[in-house]
Amino acid sequence: MPALVLGIWLQGFGTANADGLAPLTGQPGDPSRGEALLLDMQRVSCLICHRISSLDERDQGQIGPALDGVASRLDNMELRQRIVDARVFNPDTIMPPYYSVTGLVDVADLYRGRTIYDAQEVEDVVAYLLTLTEEANR
Amino acid sequence: MRRRCLPALLALAFCQPVVAEELRSGYTYMEPATQAMQDDDFLNPGFFLVDEGLRLWRQPMGPAGQSCADCHGPVEREMKGVAARYPVLDAETGKLVNLERKIQLETARMGAEPLAYESPQVLSLTTLISYQSRDMPMQPEITPQLQPFLERGRKIYEQRRGQLNLSCPQCHVDHAGDKLRGDVISQGQVNAFPIYRLLWGEPGSRHRMFEWCMQSIRARPFERGSDEFIELELYLVQRGAGLVIEAPGVRR
Amino acid sequence: MAKGVKPRVKLPKTAAVGDTITIRTLINHKMESGQRKDSDGNIVPRSIVNRFTAEFNGQSVIDVQMEPAISSNPYFQFEAKVPESGEFVFTWHDDDGDVYVLSKRIEIS
């Protein structure tokens, strides 16, 4: 597994710069799969903490900012970096790292050494979030 | 002049009210139907435990055939206020104990069958004893000897942990009152335990709730009854000092 | 017997002739619907209280059949007009065959 990650790295995937992160895989994200992931109650959905008005989902969180129109504020690299590990921007962020195990403490056995999403899932969610160009109608 | 000022200034510094969070019982975050269930002693399922606890209080245990009541006397009189000041240092073992641990230790001393931490017996007796402090403010006595325990409890409270990398205050201080999915996050106060939790469909201890929280953030929980959880409990009791005991509480 | 199941009933000890009294009953029971799965994906077997009855001096006051969707600790509150002094007998029937019975006297003046 480390060899695989390294291989991806050498091909230039997941390269970070000051503002964001290049795609983690060679396969473009699928927005519909990303949306399905968000609506899956069994996964650590963005909706636990964020609101997306265009989704027909009653119980949406208020912990983080609403994601309506997020694609007009952040580009794909910035979005990806926030999902992968938002601590890069703010070490004290409440946002969990979806694709990093760095610095995690006392992780339950079932999840130890594993990330919340895999690389392709990050890409799918980024692809979905990039469709959110419209601010909510208030 | 300078000499006299310094102590005065120090005193002033200590007298400044710390900008404290306004304490709010979890009760205030509940829906009216849940509040009503707690308020009605008939409907409140916690009173099944109060009744069972009273039966156990009077039941002889161990070879000497003694009951709790034989030594302590009536629970209403002798246990009043006890839950409000726990956890405390156990004189014999030098360890920090909460009510559940104390009940385990005492029944073991009587030679009774060992009781598991979350057994119906321990939970019932804890509920009975906590109920004797209902409407009294939680008021732990933080002696110098308790400071190191309190400090360890604070560290556990503030430690980010689990796959979701969250500490208790990140939700229960910074976002108390905000919605997480469909639920409102409370301050995570412990003044109503043992609670009947609708989600569980049964009663549970403070430590069961800690465990549930830690599992929710995909962390490896400490064991119920562990030193770490009792230290965390002490910290939370101190943090919520002044809130009145609501046991037996009802929560979502 | 399902462990620790205990009923609770509240009604006045005395009443006047013609008074309508309120009776409250509660039983602590998990009311497992038989439709839930455990963490291994196996169905948790149904275990509910399926019938509740109240009689007064041998006469039926209420007879309720319960279904699996009823929440835990089923609670019934109802009113009754009591013609004479006597005894209420409340009975809960468990799926596992257990029967829980509680009786309460009331004096009519």
Q: Can you offer a commentary on this structure?
A:
- The complex is a heterotrimer of chains A (138), B (252) and C (109).
- The model of chain A is unreliable at 1-11 (pLDDT under 50).
- Chain A starts with a helix and ends in a 9-residue tail after the last helix.
- Chain A is globular and about 35 Å long.
- By secondary structure, chain A is an all-alpha fold.
- Helices cover 28% and strands 0% of the residues of chain A.
- Chain A is built from 4 helices and no strands.
- In chain B, the strands form 3 sheets. Chain B has a 3-stranded mixed beta sheet with strand order 6-5-7. Chain B has a two-stranded antiparallel ribbon with strand order 1-2.
- Chain B is globular and about 50 Å long.
- By secondary structure, chain B is mostly helical.
- Chain B has helices spanning 2-15, 32-39, 46-57, 68-72, 75-78, 82-85, 99-109, 120-131, 147-158, 168-172, 206-216, 227-239; strands at residues 88-89, 96-97, 179-180, 183-184, 195-197, 202-204, 249-251.
- Helices cover 0% and strands 50% of the residues of chain C.
- Chain C has strands at residues 7-10, 14-15, 20-27, 49-56, 59-65, 75-81, 86-94, 99-108.
- In chain C, the strands form 2 sheets. In chain C, strands 2-8-7-4-5 form a 5-stranded mixed beta sheet, with no helix packed on it.
- In chain C, a hairpin with a 2-residue loop joins β4 (49-56) and β5.
- The radius of gyration of chain C is 16 Å and the shape is elongated.
- The mean pLDDT of chain C is 93.
- Chains in contact: A-B, B-C.
- The interface between A and B is medium-sized, with 25 and 22 residues.
Topology:
The complex is a heterotrimer of chains A (138), B (252) and C (109).
Chain A: H1 2-10, H2 31-39, H3 76-85, H4 119-129
Chain B: H1 2-15, H2 32-39, H3 46-57, H4 68-72, H5 75-78, H6 82-85, E1 88-89, E2 96-97, H7 99-109, H8 120-131, H9 147-158, H10 168-172, E3 179-180, E4 183-184, E5 195-197, E6 202-204, H11 206-216, H12 227-239, E7 249-251
Helix pairs in contact in B: 3-8, 7-8, 9-12
Chain C: E1 7-10, E2 14-15, E3 20-27, E4 49-56, E5 59-65, E6 75-81, E7 86-94, E8 99-108
Parallel strand pairs in C: 2-8
Antiparallel strand pairs in C: 1-3, 3-6, 4-5, 4-7, 7-8
